[in-house]
Design a protein that fits this description.
By secondary structure, the protein is an alpha/beta fold. The chain has helices spanning about 15-25, 75-90, 105-120, 130-140, 155-175, 180-195, 205-210, 245-250, 285-295, 310-320, 360-365, 390-405, and strands at about 5-10, 30, 40-45, 50, 65-70, 75, 95-100, 105, 200, 215-220, 260-265, 270, 305, 310, 325-330, 340-350, 350-355, 365-375, 410, 420. The structure holds inosinic acid.
């Protein structure tokens, strides 16, 4: 019953899509468990280059059942668009299953995401504006509409009617904007329901059956540990848990069924949106990384903030995820740099600390304490064995392993499937 959870171990965009796509070759099921279409998972494989937001990255392997788990919030319009694009590229999406328990992103969520961000003025969170926060808010407030609700038009109308009365009051009386039309949204969501109905199922039974058959199941996370609402840089976080624990809640797989937790780290750090990032480089090195790695958001196109590897944050992430291994991606981006830095501690109020502070005010005040390593200044993109990497590159990876306290199973030296080094097997 092997289950591997694949989770983002920094601030998202670590390259989970590539890792899942590759591991899915040997899997029978991939379950996406959190977030929504705020995520952007890039996959480059022999079938082409794809940017997935909701569809699990296992969709390219013909034997894999791909489940959008109960922990994901789904914008049906975006999902249909994504499925159509995949079909146009010849990808079969008949194995896509949507949990009937997954909540839907509604037009008022997207509108409220923008209005809430505008009302935060200088303290905006820098959300992806996909309605994710408001959709998860409604889930907890018990005002959500779930995928399963699309299957019964009468119930949908009843539910939508009461929710929208409340939402329109909020829109008109608090934000002073025009109300949304119940009829338009209802008609639109009925159409989405007709289109998605063949995919909407009670997925727990499917997952339990796969577990019982001893199949390899991948849990695909979205975003990263440092955006977790509890352990991330709150309030500059997302709204669902990207942690391995979130994998249990977002799929219905119990903690005792997870065999391996693979944390995906970039060989450096990036962050998109607001909030502290102690190792951010607002200089030519940061710019060089951004341009070389094309560090622009897959979902929003925003330039990503780039910086040195933050091992304090990375170790914290390893601990709260219970990582059994790491995938270090984009090592090749560092090929050009003569010198590299790793943040091994922070200086806060004149004292050295080695933990990731809970308060963003403290984190904003943290100065990184760096360890310097020589760069390798050689092309690694064609290397497929760890021992063939330049000595300095091996030292860099070995040092990261020590600092995050888990072995690197995988090292990536480019976006394509084959640009991968297996350093130590996952099992
Ligand atoms: P939201 O998830 O759209 O509410 O955005 C909250 C924060 O999470 C913002 O800083 C976003 O930039 C960040 N975020 C959300 N999804 C991703 C992602 O997939 N990659 C990186 N950052 C993300």
């Amino acid at each position: 019953m092997p289950v591997i959870a694949i989770v983002g171990a920094q601030w998202g965009d670590e390259g989970k899509g590539k890792v899942v796509d590759q591991l899915a070759e040997g899997a029978q099921m991939v379950v996406r468990f959190s977030g929504g279409d705020n995520a952007g998972h890039t996959v480059v494989n022999p079938l082409g280059e794809f940017k997935l937001h909701l569809v699990p990255s296992g969709i390219f392997s013909s034997r894999v059942t791909c489940i959008i788990g109960n922990g994901v919030v789904i914008n049906p319009a975006r999902l249909i668009e994504e499925v159509d694009q995949l079909n146009q590229s010849g990808i079969d999406t008949s194995r896509l299953v949507i949990s009937s328990r997954a909540h839907l992103v509604m037009p008022y969520h997207i509108l409220l995401d923008r209005l809430e961000e505008e009302s935060r003025a200088g303290k905006a969170l820098g959300t992806t504006m996909r309605g994710i926060g408001p959709a998860f808010t409604d889930k907890v407030a018990r005002l959500g509409i779930r995928a399963g609700d699309l299957l019964d038009k009468k119930d949908l109308l009843e539910r939508l009617n009461s929710v929208m009365e409340y939402k329109n009051n909020l829109l008109t009386k608090v934000y002073g904007v025009s109300p949304l039309s119940l009829d338009e949204i209802y008609q639109q969501y009925c159409q989405y329901g007709e289109r998605l109905a063949p995919h909407i199922k009670e997925t727990t039974a499917l997952i339990q059956a796969a577990l019982a058959r001893g199949e390899l199941i991948l849990l695909e996370g979205a975003q990263g540990a440092l955006l977790d609402p509890d352990f991330g840089t709150y309030p500059y976080t997302t709204s669902s848990s990207p942690l391995s624990g979130g994998g249990c809640l977002g799929s219905g797989i119990s903690p005792t069924s997870i065999d391996r937790v693979l944390g995906v780290y970039k060989a450096y750090c990036t962050r998109v949106g607001g909030g502290p990032m102690p190792t951010e480089l607002e200089d030519e090195v940061g710019n060089a990384i951004r341009e070389r790695a094309h560090e622009y958001g897959t979902t929003t196109g925003r330039p990503r903030r780039c910086g040195w590897f933050d091992a304090v944050a990375a170790r914290f992430s390893s601990q709260i995820n219970g990582l059994t291994g790491a995938a270090i991606t984009r090592l090749d981006v560092l090929d050009i740099l003569p010198q590299l830095k790793i943040c091994v501690a922070y200086k806060l109020n004149g004292k050295s600390i080695d933990y990731f502070p809970a308060s963003v005010t403290d984190l904003e005040g943290c100065q990184p304490i760096y360890e310097e390593l020589d760069g390798w200044q050689a092309d690694t993109t064609n290397i497929r064995e760890f021992d063939r990497l330049p000595t300095e590159a091996k030292k860099y990876i070995n040092r990261l392993e020590e600092l995050i306290d888990c072995p690197a199973n995988i090292v990536c030296v480019g976006p394509a499937r084959e640009q991968t080094i297996i350093k130590t097997p996952i099992f």
